[in-house]
Hints:
Bound molecules: zinc ion
Amino acid sequence: MSFWKQLLYRIRGWLYGRNGVDQIALVALMASLLLQLLASLTGLSLFLLLSVAIYVFVLFRIFSKKSYARQAENTKFVNWLVNLKTKLRQFFLRLKLRKQYIYFRCPQCRTLLRAGRGQGEKEMHCPKCGNAFTVKTGRAPGGKDTGKKKSASSEDK
Ligand SMILES: [Zn+2]
């Protein structure tokens, strides 16, 4: 066996059963690069220190032999990321539509609902649990009813 083949064989044996690179490692490495950039821009060594700490953390994860535990952590992290993305998207949508709609939660099941603004006090029916309650949507400009009666619609879907 040649030297290189032997070396490759050894590395493979050493890596066997270890966690390897996962989503946590990739995101952490990106954060680490960002911190290095911040360190060089600001000259603050704290950022460099944090960046090195993240590197150590990533190396620990990549070479961890408890790959089952690491995979469970990674799954949790990916779910959290997806959840965060959905929440952010909903937040920006609400921000964009805040002039047309008021947002509120169903007092019974906490489902996020919306109603068109300027319809006075409005009777709502939660589409999820059927709970009936009233919300104040504010007066229409000039005190006139806009005539547009929009029913509650769920935002959590
Ligand atoms: Zn409800």
